Automatic annotation (TrEMBL):
The keyword Metal-binding applies. InterPro entries: Alkb, AlkB-like, AlkB-like_sf, Oxoglu/Fe-dep_dioxygenase_dom. Its cofactor is Fe(2+). The lineage of its organism: Eukaryota, Viridiplantae, Streptophyta, Embryophyta, Tracheophyta. This is Fe2OG dioxygenase domain-containing protein. SUPFAM superfamilies: Clavaminate synthase-like. One of its GO terms (molecular function) is oxidative RNA demethylase activity. GO terms for cellular component: cytoplasm. It comes from Stephania japonica. GO terms for biological process: oxidative RNA demethylation.
Amino acid sequence: MYGEAQISGDSDRTAFRRAEKKYKLYQTSLGRRKSLKPVDLSEVFDFRAILESYNRNGGTPDGIVRHQCGFDLPVFGFEDRPGFYFIPGALSVEEQCHWIKESLLTFPQPPNRTNHTAIYGPMHDLFIEAQKKRVLIEADSLDVDVGFTTDFDSINAIANAPKWQFCEEGSKVPKDGSCKSISACSLLRKLRWSTLGLQFDWSKRNYDVSLPHNKFPENLHQLAKRMAVPAMYEKEEFHPEAAIVNYFGSGDMLGGHLDDMEADWSKPIVSMSLGCKAIFLLGGNSREDLPVAMFLRSGDIVLMAGQARECFHGVPRIFTDEENAEISPLVSQLSCQDDLCFLNYIRTSRININIRQVF
Ligand SMILES: O=C(O)CCC(=O)C(=O)O
């Protein structure tokens, strides 16, 4: 699903692919100068502008509806796309900062799995290790003398020791080039997803309830339950059981896909955007259906329920340049010394937390 922006042979076979191609990042190099291919954003819906105009004159553009659902924030949608709800600026800047920190410090912690787990095993404190500029080293390469022992506890400890360990750069490593290592900074840049609550098995594309997992975080549960209300039938409650946290860097995209692994599609997916602005594509049941494009900004929440659950969707573009990322409230909020590490990350990144009821 993930991919760097690249042109592939069949890239314009379907309407969805054509839209992805239209919006994704193309960098051209002229000598040493890199420039971005200009992109036509005139057809991208901007729900923040729609909200501002609604607040001024009570109207919405053709094709856009304001859902009258008694929710305490304005909720918009498309006339011809039932089940899709857009809540612009749903999260305060403080809430956004809180979830950015959680997404970097807490959510990737074992037993939650990340895209790194299959290669390196459970990995603790990646964000902190990256700030310390430490390096992940294959334990076999470390110059640790375990000696000879008949003590079964020691033998078990050695057998169960993590295969990869974070170390100071340059420490204890043989100098013969045999050592496998990767910097924590580089791993952080390559962090693509982590999973909360019930763990999603990407290879089998289903939830593997046998995998060890923590209870779904209570404060995220409460937030998602509150935000899901516009998409819920009366007297029903949303029970979040799992979430996928997506991490995007410059040039990353999330290809068109369906979220179809949950049992009950009447229940919404609650999807929160944090950090740099992105373009979201909402298509139809087939990749042949022409998708609509819209901006997603930090603090926006999208709900996809019912018919919208059966629609292809994806994120072809994030904007990491200062002018277009639109993260100035986060820049002000995260400017104290202790928060600069989060600011440095989010200046060129986007995080999406999408929360699901699985059963
Ligand atoms: O990043 C987003 O806004 C959408 C994420 C998504 O579609 C997914 O994880 O299934």
